[in-house]
């Protein structure tokens, strides 16, 4: 169940023979890339020394430096502890641009799977209550979860007006149509609906790709996982989140499917053509961008919000399918939403810098927001402790729930997962076959249901960084703090 936002289409460009930028220590689990050449701000990399070798192998530091050249960028070009190579931006990259100072928005700073994210459900069940039913439960979840690259969905939307409602109202519209309950929306980022969606900016090709996929897992690193709260590290915060030792949870990781992918492709092409008109030059064409307040920038943000709402509806539909499957086996349907947060977005946010509030376009690609206690964006019942940060590990390793810290860092952001350390091809070449991997995981108590055993080795645990080290680096750097550790017992993979 590898939990990163990397997709096979995010093939990064490279400059053969170029040495990676040099890092120098700049604090606990914090490293600095000094400004050189066209960099407008420095680069800041959050990582432990144990994670540094992976950074030098995949050229992600070069991408951190490239992002630092974007017009209007402020403070620094940031990289999270799970950083690895991506399209334009590294996956695990965070950058904010000042809208009033000509700041740009870049689709490469979001990625192809717009609003790919994670939601966590908590059940009133203990691990022991699943002992005899785990296999049947995983069979039911696999049958109820449309997965793979093609079509297939929980909700077959055929009416154009209804599809537009999904693009505008997201999870809120899904709930209104009976897929879930109003309480679900209270624990969703943005209440399950990102404002500013403009369906007119979504191409017919994007609509066609997304129409048959509302309520589907997809392929690659997307997953649905049954977990157990293995350890509580902050009991007071865990209680507010609704987590207790031994409790059964379900984590869902998916995004905007073909619709988001096509929106990214469409708007990258438009921005590449528009950059000369705006006098913009970038060191990598994958960083194509336009001013936030330009027609191209506004069009992309309108389409992005539509894709984000589609993704939130997608996870809401899978939540209802999960509740039905769990109820069919255990008789319990009361799976409560702990939180739902995206890790591929560009959002307009207000942040205080140098004593004044500034309107910024914050790109988080393979990074999740991690707002601290007191943030008005949080639901009232979470405001006293801070935002849940959901950080999955890999298929076979633990996941974590963390909490936003004050003052935090990188515009209140944190890592979104373990982060790949091997390409998919390398993981497949080095690992066992799919059946062997499935059997290996079964021997350590993890039931796997995969859409493709042939491709399963691409997601093997060894293809990912050590999630324990990534989490420690987040905590050491002050990005977020640990609340609970979740151990996998079953996973559905696309």
List its traits.
alpha+beta, 25% strand, disordered N terminus
Fold and architecture overview:
The structure is a single chain. With 494 residues, this protein is α+β, with helices and mostly antiparallel strands. It has one domain: tRNA-splicing ligase RtcB (Alpha-Beta Complex), CATH 3.90.1860.10. It is built from twelve helices and 19 strands. Strands 7, 8, 9, 11, 15, 16, 18 and 19 form an eight-stranded mixed beta sheet that branches. The chain has a seven-stranded mixed beta sheet with strand order 1-2-3-4-5-13-12, sandwiched between helices. The protein has a two-stranded antiparallel ribbon with strand order 6-10. Strand 4 and strand 5 (91-98) form a beta hairpin. Helix 4 crosses helix 9. The termini are close together.
Fourth-level CATH superfamily: tRNA-splicing ligase RtcB
Quote the beta fraction: 15-25%
Binned, the helix content reads: 25-40%
Shape: globular
CATH class: Alpha Beta
- Give the structural class: alpha+beta
Radius of gyration: 21 Å
Proper CATH architecture: Alpha-Beta Complex
Number of spatially distinct domains: 1
Tally the helices.
12
- Biggest sheet overview: 8 strands, mixed
| Uncertain stretches of 5 or more adjacent residues | 1-12
Overall residue-averaged pLDDT value: 93
Q: Quick one: how many beta strands?
A: 19
Q: How far do the termini sit from each other?
A: 9 Å
CATH topology: tRNA-splicing ligase RtcB
